[in-house]
Design a protein that fits this description.
103 residues; alpha+beta; four-stranded antiparallel β-sheet; two-stranded antiparallel sheet; 2 helices
């Protein structure tokens, strides 16, 4: 981890929240909805989002800005968390949307 990433991780730890959306392990994936339709979901590529029985937890895309942890050993920030989350909240859809693939 670079010195800049360590500083951002330290800043997030002292502020009390680490936003998963600002981590390189937070990945956007398509969830099939039948036919050529899909909805957007997010998952942790590092495997940190788990249900009690061990199954992977997938979140709806429009809720990703709310996902935060107090500590995560796999957290690798992509930039300034405050600015990133502020911009993300402005650009996220307000509800779950269904998209159609052109493929």
């Amino acid at each position: 981890m670079s010195a800049k990433n360590e500083a951002l991780n330290e800043e997030a730890a002292t502020s009390g929240k680490i936003y998963c959306a600002n981590c390189v392990h937070c990945k956007l994936v398509r969830e099939p909805q039948g036919g050529m339709r899909y909805s957007l979901r997010v998952r942790c590529d590092a495997g940190k989002w788990r249900k009690k029985l061990g199954e992977e937890k997938i979140y709806k895309y429009f809720t990703v800005a709310r996902r935060s942890l107090d500590h995560c050993d796999a957290y690798e920030p992509m930039g300034d968390p405050k600015e990133f989350i502020k911009d993300l909240k402005k650009n996220l859809p307000i509800k779950d949307e269904i998209y159609t693939s052109r493929d």
